[in-house]
Amino acid sequence: xxxxxxxxxxxxxxxTEKIYALGGFNLTLPDxxxxxxxxxxxxxxxxxxYCLSTLKKPTDGEILYNGKDLTKLRDTERENLRRKEFGFxxxxxxxxxxxxxxxxVTVAAAGGGGATDRAxxxxxxxxxxxxxxxxxxxxxxxxxxxxxxIARAMINEPRVLFADEPTAALDHExxxxxxxxxxx
Length: 184
Description:
Layout: E1 2-11, E2 19-29, H1 45-52, E3 60-65, E4 68-69, H2 75-85, E5 86-89, H3 101-106, H4 115-125, H5 130-133, H6 142-154, E6 160-163, H7 172-183
Parallel strand pairs: 5-6
Antiparallel strand pairs: 1-2, 1-3, 3-4
């Protein structure tokens, strides 16, 4: 699915001392399964995810997704790809503060009917109870907010789900529950 060729990401290009977040490597990722990338803080894990997901463009190299070079896509093509095939779970939840949990999930829906029902089913699968569906993020616990963000990432049934430390804000029991759902 992903074939990464000589990818490099350099920050502070205009400065004398450039910062290499990714330093020219090759990697092929399989079509299915969970793939974990581990390493110390600052080693480029998040940058790699952002490049693979087209949220950032690498300084050099190619990222092939199903044979198509993502680094050559126009903005609208990247947006359509993200909307139709990718889901995102960031380290922070980035929920819209004035929207309910259900609305925060459905805001990412790619159209079509039934988004509210799908959102409620996802929230329930992540063990939020119905009275929490109408709460705004400030009224949810940190774990509930993160699980809402994960439901939002899954609303369109993405082929690829990018998750940057998706269970960091969760207790062990909820972390295992979330991982089981992600595996499914």
